[in-house]
Amino acid sequence: MTETQEVKFSDAAMAEIQRYISHYPEGRQKSALLPVLHIAQAEFGGWVSPEVMDKVAEILQIQPIEVYEVATFYTMFNLKPVGKHVLEVCRTGPCCLRGADEMIEMLKQKLNIEEGETTADGMFTLKPVECLASCGTGPMLQVREVYYENLDSEQRVDEFLQMMRSKEHEIPTWAK
Ligand code: FES
């Protein structure tokens, strides 16, 4: 979405947003902020621009800053355009003890990007995150709601990337 485009949710997305808002008492619609941000991210290409966050604030009848402070706190929200697959790589201590640094370095070299960047073909974004609660199977990463674990060798990293490039994984990361 470009900055000049109007932020307009689809009818289906608006219906879903209203369903979440209806879970809360009158005047407490801010409580639906997290799911509404998830809907917004899915609706607008996998990231939430300031314009999208402003629209969310308007829908929930809250101040834009209240949306910004939540969207910038949680790593699951992307604040700039991302690739088709967002590789959320765990870089917290236990995974580091099991080789997370090496896994991240391999991914950087093989994808020719740094942390936070997207590959030239728009396929992958490399995004370091904190503990994903799968410490015993590190080094690991998450793509959408799926965990990929024990990526502790070049062969496993290669197999993972090959699988993500295959037809079975054509659904964009940000798609519902
Ligand atoms: S430290 Fe990586 S999942 Fe917990």
UniProtKB/TrEMBL annotation:
It comes from the Bacteria. CDD domains: TRX_Fd_NuoE. SUPFAM superfamilies: Thioredoxin-like. [2Fe-2S] cluster binds at residues 90, 95, 131, 135. One of its GO terms (molecular function) is 2 iron, 2 sulfur cluster binding. Transmembrane segments: none annotated. Binds 1 [2Fe-2S] cluster. PROSITE patterns: COMPLEX1_24K. Keywords: 2Fe-2S, Iron, Iron-sulfur, Metal-binding. Gene3D superfamilies: Glutaredoxin (3.40.30.10), NADH-quinone oxidoreductase subunit E (1.10.10.1590). The keyword Cell cycle does not apply. InterPro entries: NuoE-like, NuoE_dom, NuoE_N, Thioredoxin-like_sf. Its cofactor is [2Fe-2S] cluster. Belongs to the complex I 24 kDa subunit family. This is NAD(P)H-dependent oxidoreductase subunit E. It comes from Pontibacter arcticus.
